[in-house]
Amino acid sequence: MLDSNNVGLREAVQQNNDPVLREFLRLLALCHTVMVEERGDQLVYQAASPDEEALVLAARSLGYVFLSRTQDSITISEMGVKRTFQVLAMLDFNSDRKRMSVLVRDPQGTIRLYTKGADTVILERLRGRGPNQDFTERALDHFAEETLRTLCLASKELSEAEYDEWSRRHRVANILLQGRACELDRLYEEMEQDLELLGVTAIEDKLQEGVPETIQLLKLGNIKVWVLTGDKQETAMNVGYACKLLSDDMEILEEKEVSEILEAYWARNNNISGSDCVSQQHPEPLCHKKRALVISGDFVDTILQTGEVLQKKGQLWQQLACHGTTDPQEQGSLVEKAFVDLATSCQAVICCRVTPKQKALIVQLVKKHKKATTLAIGDGANDVNMIKTADIGVGISGLEGVQAVQCSDYALAQFCYLQRLLLVHGRWGYLRICKFLRYFFYKTFAGLMTQIWFAFHSGFTAQPLYEGWFLALYNVFYTAYPVLSVGLLEQDVSAKKSLRFPELYTIGQQDELFNYRIFSVTLLHGVSTSLTSFYIALWAFEDHVGSRTVGDYESFSVTVATSALLSVLVEIILDTKFWTALSFLMVTASLLLFCLFSFLTQSIDAFRIAPAVFRFPDATQNALTDPYILLVILLSLVVNTIPSLTIRSYNAITGNTSIQQNICWKARREPEPSVELRTHVPRGSFHHRSSYAFSHQEGYAGLITRGESLRTKGTHSTTKGTHISNSTTKGTHISNSTTKGTHISNSTSKGTHISNSTHSTTNSTKSTTKDTQSTTKDTHSTKGTQSITKGTNSTHSTKGTHISNSTHSTTNSTQST
C-alpha cells in the first residue's frame, strides 16, 4: 500500500494518458504463474519464485492488483476497476526458451500477447529497433552495475485471423504423440516475433549476510568453490565479485580462452612431446597466476558429450591417435580430465546458464576425475539434482521453498553457517573419528595380543591367559568409555580459533591424522605395549614368589590384565586435549567398573554357585593386595608410558611438530584474525549487463491450464524493497518511500522534482527488512571436503525490485540503497 500523501504518483497512473505505461503494468499483473489466496481481507500470493512474487507486488503497489485466476481467465483490478481477461494460451517457460508468454483476450475483445524474458532473447525478437531501445540498454547497463537481475517486457496485438490459424495448429500440436515438445516450441517461437518493447525490470538479489566472509574462509581452508547458476554470464560474474569469489587482479578465462589453452594444458600435464604430432604451444603454468574460469552450460555440454571445442583444432586428436588412443569413449574421458585439471588449477570456477541436469553432471565430472569429496549447497528445486549427486548435500531453507532441504544431508538457515559446519564441526568430527579409530585399535592390540605371547609358553594348548569375564568386559566396559568420550568431545582448538585459522582444515584433506602410516604406528605401539605387559610380568613371576602365596597362574593373569588396562587408560589420558567433566567421569567409571566386576565375578559365593563359570575366586583381591605385584604393575606402566612421553617431549623441545601443532601454537599466540574480512568489496570498473536468473527447467503453466493449483507453501514471505522506475513523456521525477520500503520513481518533461518519504525528504530511501532464521539441522560431522558447488540462489535473498519503463529518450536514473 502506498503512502496516502503520495498523490502525485497516483494521479500519474490514474490519468491513464500513457498507453505504454498502462500495458507495462498490465503485463506485470497478467504474465505470471502466481496463485492467489484470500485470507480475510488480504490477498496472499504463492509464487514459484520470489522474483515473480516481487513483480506482482510491484504492480499491486501501483494499483494493478492481481485478484484471482481460473483455468481460463485472470481477474485483475486496474486502479479500482475490476477486469477479467480470457486466457487463450500460456506459453510456458523453460531453460531453453528463457521467457514466458500469455495470450489473452481483454473485455473489449482485443487479443494481445504479453511476454517477459531475458534481454538476450527479447531484444532479438522485437519488430525493429525503436527510439527507446538505446535508453533501455543504458538502463540495463546501469542495473548491471548494481548486480541486478533483469527482465525485458514486450507485447503485441493479434488479429482474430492470426489467432485462429495459430490456435488451430496449437491444438493439433497438443495432441501429438511424438515430437510434441518440439512442435510446441516451434509454434511458440513463431508467435513470439515482431514484439513491441514495453520496458525492463530489475530485481536486486542481495547476498545474505556473511557470504563474502564464508567464501574467503573456505578458500583459505583450501576448499575449491564452484558456482553453478542459471544466471547469464554477466550476472554470475557480478555476483562473483560481490561475494569475493572473483577479484580485480584475477585473469578471467572465458570460453574462447579456455578452448585455446586447453589443448596445450592437457599436453603439458600428460607429457606429450616429440615430433610431428605435438603442439608447440606451452602456456605459462596456471599455478603461478590467479585465474578464474567462466563458462556456460552449452560449453559444458560440448566438453561432456562431444569434445567439439578441441576437435575443431584437430591437433589434440592427432596426438591421441599417435599414442594409440582411438576409442571415442577414451578420447572423451581424456578431454574431460584435461578440462577438470584446468578448472581445478583456477582459483574460482563459475558455470552460468546451466540447467539442473548440467549441475549434476558437473559434480559427477569432478567426482570421476578427482579424488576429492564434493559438497553441493543450494536452496531451490533446481539444485536438487546437484545436491543428490554430491557426496555431501546441504540445503538452505528460505524463500525458494524446502525441496532442497528435504533432499539434503544437512539443513542450514543461511549460507554463512556453512563455515561452522565445515571448519568447526566438520574438522572436529574428522579429528574425533581419527582418534577414536586409532585408540580403538591400540587398546585392542595392547590388551588382547598378550594371549598370543602366552600361547608360545603354554604350548599352544588353547588355554586362555585372561579370565573369561575380563575378555567379555574389556571392550564393553573397561576401555570403551574413555575412547567414546574422545570420539564425542575431543577438540584441539576452540571454535573461534578454528574459524580464525581455517588452514587447520587442510589436515583432513591430506588425511594426516589417520592413514596407513598412522595405522602401522598404532599397530606397533599396541604390540609393544602387549609385549611389555606380558614379559615384565613373566620375568617377575619366573622363579619368584610374593610375600604371600602369590605366583600362580591366576595372579599372573590378573597382573598382565591390570598392566595392559592401566597402560591403555594412561595413553588415552595423555593424548586427550579437551577435558570436560564427562571425560573425567568416563575414565573414572572405567576403573570403578573394573574393580566392581572383578569383585562380583571373583567372589567366593559366585564360585560356589557356578564354579565352571567363575573360575578365579578372589584372584584380583589376593594379587592387588601384594606390594610385589603392585610394583610389577607400576613397572609395566612406567615402561609403557615412557616412550610416549619421550616422543612428545622431544617434539616440543626440538620444534619438530606437525603442521597442525604449529597452527595451533600460532592460534594461541595471535588473538586477532589472520585476514581482514569485509562484507562489501568494491568491484572496480568491471561492468556487465545482468539478466534474470533462469535456472529451473520448466514453469507451472501446465498446472494452471489443467486447473491444478500450486502446492501451498508453509510460510509466506513479502518483498521488502521494491524499486520501480518509469520514464514517460513529461519529465517529472516523483519519488516515494512507503512503509514496506517500496521506492517508485516516475519522470515527466516539466523538470519538477517531488520527493515524499515517510521519514525524511530524500531521493534515496532505506527499507528495513527482517531476516528470519530457520532451525539448523546438524546431526553429522563432515571432514575433508575439497570442493564446494553451489547455486547462486542459495546465497541470496530477494530484497528489492527495480522496474524501468521507457517511452522516450529522456533518461533519469534512480538509485536506492
TrEMBL record:
EC number: 7.6.2.1
GO terms for MF: ATP binding; ATP hydrolysis activity; ATPase-coupled intramembrane lipid transporter activity; metal ion binding
Residue span of region Disordered: 710-817
Cofactor(s) the protein needs: Mg(2+)
Catalytic activity annotation: ATP + H2O + phospholipidSide 1 = ADP + phosphate + phospholipidSide 2
Ranges annotated as biased composition (Low complexity): 715-725, 755-776, 801-817
Enzyme class: translocase
Taxonomy, superkingdom: Eukaryota
GO terms, biological process: Golgi organization; phospholipid translocation
Family of the protein in this entry: Belongs to the cation transport ATPase (P-type) (TC 3.A.3) family. Type IV subfamily.
UniProt-recorded name of the protein: P-type phospholipid transporter
Source organism per UniProt: Chrysolophus pictus (Golden pheasant)
UniProt lineage: Eukaryota, Metazoa, Chordata, Craniata, Vertebrata
